């Protein structure tokens, strides 16, 4: 696998494949790769002829300087992992390559989609930063398919919106959340948790599971479902920053679980902010007791 750092190098590395009509897949990441990222790369390698992984810790989407400073960076290990998962190219640009002097354009998805949930907690600049960098990466690599994780469900909606609105010629493929055996959604930020915090971080997936089980037993009231999330999380002394049951396309709050809905939560464990979500489906009526706690959630969100 080759690492390229400039847009010019990326374009010339991709030119032969494009000329030959090969399918190019792009997996945008901020690095510190884990199984969640690798699942996207592996799927891209199955579906496309050539896979580019981008590795760029995008300062524009960080609303807290400390979060940006301590974000884990390990390019050498990432390159080896990406290659093993099937990537041919690693695009790892410097900040100045992405935002050269004079850079003055941003992409903003307006309205509720970017303003709710993470938009409330992290401010408008977060999704403006995400939308701008993803648009730029799509224009730089011009992939046929771009891969994203359902773990960042709101991000997927924002990206689908901008791809449609700007007529970008790319298919957006979202893949299920990959979890640790105890249910914790994999995240590069998990590496920043102390052992005690790691234990409390279980509260997010445990809260989601409690609500899923209640929904499977027939509970339809949002208040009761969110109550179950809060109660479960409190057992590990964690209070969610938000817990919301929303329409999975518009992110508007729903009062009752009458159709498929997105249950989204965020919580701070020490200094580390984590998010997770689960699709609740009112037609699922059986509560399966998983032998492996992570599996039930992964299956539900698939
Ligand atoms: P990040 O490096 O955190 O910006 O993530 C890069 C891509 O990987 C995004 O599309 C994320 O949604 C996706 N991703 C992160 N964590 C997971 C996970 N646990 N399972 C599946 N996809 C993930």
Your description of this structure?
- The chain contains 12 helices and 9 strands.
- The chain is of the alpha/beta class and 302 residues long.
- The strands form 2 sheets. It has a 6-stranded parallel beta sheet with strand order 1-4-3-2-5-6, sandwiched between helices. It has a 3-stranded antiparallel beta sheet with strand order 7-8-9.
- Strand 2, helix 2 and strand 3 form a beta-alpha-beta unit.
- The two termini are 30 Å apart.
- 42% of the residues are buried.
- The C terminus is likely disordered.
- The structure holds adenosine monophosphate.
- The site of adenosine monophosphate has 16 residues, from helix 2 and strand 5.
One letter per element, helices H and strands E, the order comes to EHEHEHHEHHHHEHEHHEEEH
Number of distinct beta strands: 9
Low-confidence stretches: 287-302
Write down the Rg. 19 Å
Our measurement of the CA-to-CA distance between the termini, rounded to an integer number of angstroms, reads 30 Å
Biggest sheet statistics: 6 strands, parallel
Portion in strands: 15-25%
Q: Indicate the overall shape.
A: globular
* Range of helix content: 40-55%
Average per-residue pLDDT, rounded, comes to 94
Present as ligands are:
adenosine monophosphate
Number of helices: 12
Q: Which strands sit side by side, in order, in the main sheet? A: 1-4-3-2-5-6
Which structural class matches the secondary elements? alpha/beta
């Amino acid at each position: 696998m080759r690492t390229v750092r400039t847009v010019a190098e990326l374009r010339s590395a991709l030119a032969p494949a494009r000329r030959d009509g090969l399918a190019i897949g792009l997996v945008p990441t901020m690095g510190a790769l884990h199984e969640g990222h690798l699942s996207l790369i592996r799927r891209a390698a199955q579906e496309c002829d050539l896979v580019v992984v981008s590795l760029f810790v995008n300062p524009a989407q960080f609303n807290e300087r400390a979060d940006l400073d301590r974000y884990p960076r390990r390019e050498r290990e990432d390159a080896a992992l990406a290659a093993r998962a099937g990537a041919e190219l690693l695009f790892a640009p410097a900040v100045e390559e992405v935002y050269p002097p004079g850079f003055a354009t941003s992409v903003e998805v307006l309205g509720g989609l970017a303003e709710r949930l993470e938009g409330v907690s992290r401010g408008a600049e977060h999704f403006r930063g995400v939308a701008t960098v993803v648009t730029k990466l799509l224009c730089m690599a011009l992939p046929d398919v771009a891969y994203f994780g359902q773990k960042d469900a709101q991000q997927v909606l924002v990206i689908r919106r901008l791809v449609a609105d700007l007529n970008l010629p790319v298919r957006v493929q979202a893949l299920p959340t990959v979890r640790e055996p105890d249910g914790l959604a994999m995240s590069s930020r998990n590496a920043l948790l102390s052992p005690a915090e790691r234990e409390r971080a279980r509260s997010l997936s445990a809260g989601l599971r409690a609500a899923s089980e209640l929904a499977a037993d027939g509970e339809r009231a949002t208040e009761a479902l969110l109550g179950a999330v809060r109660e479960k999380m409190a057992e590990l002394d964690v209070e969610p920053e938000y817990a919301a049951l929303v329409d999975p396309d518009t992110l508007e709050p729903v009062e009752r679980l009458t159709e498929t809905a997105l249950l989204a939560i965020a919580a701070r464990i020490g200094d580390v902010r984590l998010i997770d979500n689960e699709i609740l489906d009112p037609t699922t009526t059986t509560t399966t007791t998983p032998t492996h706690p992570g599996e039930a959630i992964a299956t539900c969100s698939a």
